[in-house]
Write a structure and sequence with these properties.
The complex is a heterodimer. Chain A has 27 helices and 24 strands. About 0% of the residues of chain A have low confidence. Chain B is an alpha+beta fold. Chain B is about 40% helix and about 25% strand. The chains are: A alpha+beta, B alpha+beta. Chains A and B meet through α1 and α10 of A and α1 of B.
Chain lengths: ~750, ~60
C-alpha cells in the first residue's frame, strides 16, 4: 500500500469533493481516498501494483477537476485561492473600471450644467464635436469592462430567453449607438449637442454592476463565514502509535487513529476521548459559549479548541463524514435550493422582460406616429428600458435568504433550504418530543420519601447498590448521595429490569428497585402507597429501598426539564403557535410536564413507531406542523412533518431527515428559528416592494405620459439613477437583517 | 423525455461538469440545478448512457 497526498483544484462544493472521492474509490486497488474540501487535499492509499498515479490523475481530470501531487511546500497552500474570491475581485475591478470612466463621461457631459468649467478644446459651446468625441472614446473602456452584460444579454435575447442582462445590454447599446449618430449630426448642426446620451449608456452599466457586486459580495461573505470556520481545522495532528507521538498532516488521519491534543490545541477530527480529560470550546460549531467538559467517552468535534486539559482522542470520522463537512453540506444545500418565493420572482422576471421591451417599443411607436422627432422617440424607448430593468427583483429573494441563513448560522440554527426557511415561520403547530427536547434526558432525584429509615441512611444504602449498576437512574441517585458515605455491600446481584439485591453485613438483605421488585419479594409498601401513587402520576420514577424485609423508604427521580423550556414555549405561544408535547410516557406524567412548561396539549403514550402517525393526523386537521426531535426514532416523524427540526445536533439520522438543525440543545432556538423565518419573509416582501416601486412609478413617466401636460420626461440618466436606487434599497434592506436579534 | 434525479448536484460547478460529460456522450439533455435533475431526450439506451456518464464523474444518478 502506498499513501500519497494530491492537491485538487476547481472544487466548489461538498458534492465536488465527494465526486472526487467516489471516482477514485472506484478504481480497483484503491483502498481509501479522502478529500478535504477546505484544504483542497486528497489523501489516497492504493496498491501500486494495480494503480498508478497517472490513472488516478486522469480519472480525477476526467471528472472535471485539476490535480497535482502535493509537494510539502507550505507556499503552495498559501497561494491557493478561493475561486469565488477571485471572481469577486474581477467583478470589483470591472465595476470600478466602468464606474470611473462612467463618472468621467458624466463629469464632462453634465459638469458644465453645474458651472464646472471644461477646457476650451472640449467645451461644447466652442468645440462641440470634440466634446462629443471625447465622451464617445471614454465610453469604450467602460463598455469593455462591462462586456459580459452584452455577451450574456444579447446571447439570451437571441435564444428568445431574455433576462435582466438583455435589458441592460439593449438599453445601454441603444443609448450609445444613438449618441454616435448624434455625434455625426453635430458636425454640421451644433444645436444637437445637448442630445447626447453617452453618460446614460455607461452609467446604467456601472450601477447595475455595482448592484451585482454587492449581491455577490454578500453571498461571498456568507460563504466566507463558513470557510473561516472550516479553516479552523489544524494543519497537523499529533498521532500516537505505540506510545510514540508523531506530527502528521490532519488530512492523513484515518478512522481508528489515536491523536493527542493539548491545552490550546485544536482537535483535528471527530472522535471519542479515550484517555485524559479537558474542556473544549465548541462555540464556532454550536454557538454554545461555555467550554464543554470532556472526559473519557465524550465525543469531541474536529475544529473545536481544547481550552484546558490534555486528551487522547480515538478518531472515528474523517473527510466527508465529519461534522464540519456536514455543516458545509447543509449550508450549500440551503443556497442551492430555491425557495418557492424566488421561483415566483424568476417567473415574474421571465414575463417582465418581453413585456417591457414591448411597452418601450409601443411607446416609441406611438410617439413616432404622433410626429415626435427621432431623438425623442429613442429617448422614450431607452428610458423605459433603463427604468424597468428589474435587477432589484432578481436581488430581492436571494439576498434576503442569503443573509437570513447567515444570521441563523450565527445562532447555531442551520437551515437546509430556502424552502424550509420560508415554511417554518408559517407553521401553526410545534410538536415537541419530550425526552431529550423539553427535558434533558438525564433524570435527577426529586424527592426522598422516608419510611423506616431517614434520608441520609436511605441514600447511603441506595447509593451503595446503585454504584454497581449502569442504569440511567443510578447516576441520579449517586449525584443525590454525594458526600454521604455509602454502606458496605456483599453478594451483589442485579435483577434486570427490577433492581439490585445485596447483603449488608449484620443487617440483612438489601433490596433497591422498582415497586414490581418489592411486590415480588413480598415487601409491604402500604406505608408509602398513597404518596407513591401521587408522585408516579406526576411522572416520577420511584426507587424503593427495603432492608431485611422492611420498607425503608423511596427515592423519586424524574427527568429534569431544561431551564429554558418554559420560556421558549411561552415565546412560541406569543408568536401564535400551538405547542404540542409528544411522549411515550403515561398520561399523568405527560400532563404534569405539559403543565409545568405551559404546553397547549400533551399527546401521551405514543410508541416510537407511532410518532409519524400523530404528525400526519395533525396535518390532516389542516395544521402546518413543525416537529422537533433528537433521536433516531424521531427520523420518520421529522420527515413526515412540514418542517422537521433536529435539536442538539442529535443523531446523524435525525440530522439527515430534518430541514432545520439546531446545533445547541436550547429550546429557545425554536422560537428563534420561527422569528428568523418570519423576519426573512418580511424582508423578501419589502425587497419585492422596493424592486417594483421605482419601476411602476417611473414607467409611465418614462413613456412620456406626463410630457404633453407638464413637459416632464424621464431622461435615461435619471432612469438609471432611480433603478440603481431600487437595487441599493433592496440590498441594504437585506443586509439590515444581519443586525436583527433573534 | 426521461427525468433523472441527481441528488448530489449542488452548485454551478456540478452543472458544468455534468453538462460536459453528457455532451461528450453526445446526448440531448437539460440540467436543472433547482430540482437536481437531468432531463434526457432519447431512448432507454440514451438514459442508461447518461446515468453511466454521470456515475463516471462521481454522481449518483437514478431515473425519477
Amino acid at each position: 500500500m502506498k499513501e500519497e497526498v494530491y492537491i485538487i483544484t476547481g472544487m466548489h462544493c461538498a458534492a465536488c469533493s465527494s465526486s472526487v472521492e467516489r471516482v477514485t474509490r472506484k478504481l480497483a486497488g484503491v483502498e481509501r481516498s479522502d478529500v478535504n474540501l477546505m484544504t483542497n487535499r486528497m489523501t489516497i492509499s492504493y496498491d501500486p501494483g494495480q494503480v498508478t498515479p497517472e490513472t488516478i490523475m486522469s480519472k480525477v481530470q476526467k471528472a472535471g477537476f485539476g490535480i497535482r501531487p502535493f509537494n510539502d511546500t507550505p507556499k503552495a497552500e498559501s497561494t491557493k485561492e478561493d475561486e469565488g474570491e477571485v471572481a469577486l475581485r474581477r467583478q470589483k475591478r470591472d465595476m470600478i473600471g466602468t464606474l470611473v470612466f462612467a463618472a468621467l463621461v458624466s463629469l464632462i457631459s453634465m459638469g458644465h450644467m453645474f458651472g464646472m468649467p471644461l477646457p476650451r478644446f472640449i467645451d461644447p459651446a466652442v468645440s462641440p464635436v470634440n466634446y462629443a468625441l471625447i465622451q464617445m472614446l471614454l465610453c469604450i473602456p467602460a463598455l469593455l469592462f462591462g462586456r459580459r452584460f452584452f455577451i450574456g444579454g444579447f446571447g439570451s435575447l437571441i435564444r428568445l430567453n431574455p433576462n435582466m442582462d438583455s435589458l441592460v445590454a439593449v438599453s445601454s447599446s441603444c443609448s450609445y449607438i444613438y449618441s454616435i449618430v448624434v455625434t455625426f449630426v453635430i458636425s454640421f448642426d451644433p444645436g444637437w449637442v445637448h442630445q447626447l446620451y453617452y453618460e446614460s449608456a455607461v452609467m446604467v452599466l456601472g450601477l447595475v454592476m455595482l448592484g451585482k457586486f454587492l449581491e455577490e459580495r454578500s453571498k461571498q461573505r456568507t460563504k466566507g463565514a463558513i470557510a473561516g470556520l472550516m479553516a479552523l481545522t489544524p494543519d497537523t495532528a499529533f498521532i500516537v502509535t505505540d506510545d510514540v507521538v508523531n506530527e502528521i498532516p490532519s488530512d492523513a488521519l484515518q478512522k481508528g487513529d489515536l491523536v493527542l491534543v493539548k491545552t490550546g490545541g485544536r482537535i483535528p477530527a471527530d472522535g471519542i476521548v479515550e484517555r485524559g480529560s479537558g474542556a473544549a470550546n465548541e462555540a464556532m460549531l454550536t454557538g454554545e459559549s461555555l467550554p464543554v467538559e470532556k472526559e473519557v467517552g465524550s465525543r469531541v468535534i474536529g475544529g473545536s479548541i481544547l481550552s484546558g486539559g490534555t486528551v487522547y482522542v480515538r478518531v472515528d470520522r474523517v473527510g466527508a463524514e465529519s461534522t464540519l463537512a456536514g455543516i458545509i453540506r447543509l449550508m450549500e444545500d440551503a443556497q442551492g435550493k430555491k425557495a418557492p418565493v424566488s421561483r415566483l420572482a424568476d417567473k415574474v422576471a421571465g414575463v417582465f422582460v418581453p413585456v417591457i421591451i414591448g411597452i418601450s417599443s409601443l411607446a416609441g411607436l406611438i410617439w413616432a406616429l404622433c410626429g415626435a422627432d427621432i431623438a425623442f422617440v429613442v429617448r422614450v424607448f431607452t428610458s423605459i428600458l433603463v427604468i424597468a430593468c428589474p435587477c432589484a427583483l432578481g436581488l430581492a429573494t436571494p439576498t434576503a435568504i442569503m443573509v437570513g441563513t447567515g444570521l441563523g448560522a450565527k445562532y447555531g440554527i442551520l437551515v437546509k433550504s430556502g424552502e424550509a426557511l420560508e415554511l417554518i415561520g408559517k407553521a401553526d403547530t410545534v410538536v415537541l418530543d419530550k425526552t431529550g427536547t423539553i427535558t434533558t434526558g438525564q433524570p435527577q432525584v426529586t424527592e426522598v420519601l422516608e419510611a423506616a429509615a431517614g434520608r441520609d441512611e436511605l441514600l447511603a444504602m441506595a447509593a451503595a447498590a446503585e454504584a454497581m449498576s449502569a442504569h440511567p437512574l443510578s447516576k441520579a441517585v449517586l449525584a443525590a448521595a454525594e458526600g454521604i458515605e455509602p454502606v458496605k455491600l456483599q453478594d451483589f446481584e442485579e435483577l434486570a429490569g427490577m433492581g439490585i439485591k445485596a447483603v449488608i453485613e449484620d443487617r440483612g438483605t438489601l433490596l433497591v428497585g422498582s415497586r414490581g421488585m418489592m411486590r415480588r419479594e413480598g415487601i409491604d409498601e402500604s406505608a408509602l402507597t398513597a404518596e407513591l401513587d401521587r408522585l408516579s402520576g406526576m411522572g416520577r420514577t420511584p426507587i424503593l429501598v427495603a432492608l431485611d424485609g422492611v420498607l425503608q423508604g423511596a427515592i423519586m427521580a424524574a427527568d429534569t426539564i431544561r431551564d429554558t423550556s418554559r420560556a421558549a414555549i411561552e415565546r412560541m405561544k406569543t408568536m401564535g403557535v400551538r405547542v404540542v408535547l409528544l411522549t411515550g410516557d403515561n398520561k399523568g406524567a405527560a400532563e404534569y410536564v405539559a403543565d409545568a412548561v405551559g404546553a397547549d396539549e400533551a399527546i401521551a403514550e405514543v410508541l416510537p413507531g407511532e410518532k409519524a402517525q400523530v404528525i400526519s393526523r395533525l396535518k390532516a386537521e389542516g395544521r402546518r406542523v413543525v416537529m422537533v426531535g433528537d433521536g433516531i426514532n424521531d427520523a420518520v416523524a421529522l420527515t413526515e412533518a412540514d418542517i422537521g427540526v433536529a435539536i442538539g445536533a442529535g443523531s446523524d439520522v435525525a440530522v439527515d431527515s430534518a430541514d432545520v438543525v439546531l446545533m445547541r440543545s436550547d429550546l429557545m432556538d425554536i422560537p428563534r428559528a420561527l422569528r428568523l423565518s418570519r423576519l426573512t419573509l418580511t424582508d423578501v416582501k419589502e425587497n419585492l416592494f422596493w424592486a417594483f416601486f421605482y419601476n411602476v412609478i417611473c414607467i409611465p413617466v418614462a413613456a412620456g405620459a406626463l410630457y404633453p401636460a407638464f413637459g416632464i420626461l424621464l431622461t435615461p440618466m435619471i432612469g438609471s439613477f432611480a433603478m440603481s436606487l431600487s437595487s441599493i434599497c433592496v440590498v441594504s434592506n437585506a443586509l439590515r437583517l444581519r443586525f436583527k436579534k433573534l | 423525455m426521461t427525468v433523472i434525479n441527481v441528488p448530489g448536484m449542488m452548485c454551478e460547478k456540478c452543472v458544468a461538469r455534468i453538462t460536459n460529460a453528457l455532451n461528450e456522450a453526445n446526448l440531448k439533455f437539460t440540467v436543472t440545478l433547482a430540482d437536481k435533475t437531468v432531463t434526457v431526450d432519447g431512448d432507454d439506451a440514451a438514459v442508461a448512457a447518461a446515468i453511466e456518464a454521470m456515475d463516471d464523474i462521481g454522481f449518483e444518478a437514478a431515473k425519477a
